Amino acid sequence: MTVAIVAFGCMQQPRVPAYTQRVADPYVARRWSSPVFTTAHATFRDAARDFLNIQPRPQQPIDFPHNIHTDDIGVYCDTCHTGVSKSARAGIPSINVCMSCHEDIGDAADPRIQALRDYAKRGEDVAWQRVYGFIRESHVRFNHAPHIRAKVGCSTCHGDVVQMTVAERAVNHTMGFCIDCHKQKGASNDCLTCHY
Fold this sequence. Notes:
This protein is an all-alpha fold. The chain has a domain at about 85-90 and about 130-195. The chain has 11 helices and no strands.
């Protein structure tokens, strides 16, 4: 019986097309030779910067001067960032918000005003780059509204933007920064307060 099993096992298998004509895997050549460091990062440098939470400095399409859009002329943070007291996000102003003032106000020779008016004529929003924001992996659920109700000033988390021309990251939003502020204000430091 052993001889029969060995003999049958050594017999030539039937010629089945799927087995005799193997199709080459079109991805095999690229599978291990990709220049991409990981699926998430193009280079080791990008991976290291992400790990160390080093964020690139945002390049704004227009050098927006925060230092002239101040409360002494009746412009407050929530004038342009309308969602700050009503919703989770402060929001980045649309071209309509800009043009509510700059359709008539502003030096027509100023290239920033010209650029705003050009965006409006084309019906495009300005592609403002976010200056602040939590990385997705931190799973932070930040809501501006309770912070505004608790009378946390904008400068606490964003620095003295009124003195800046183009907004820059002035405060590093680490977990320690948030926990310290919550301790000082008597707010909850339960994990689910900020993380989901």
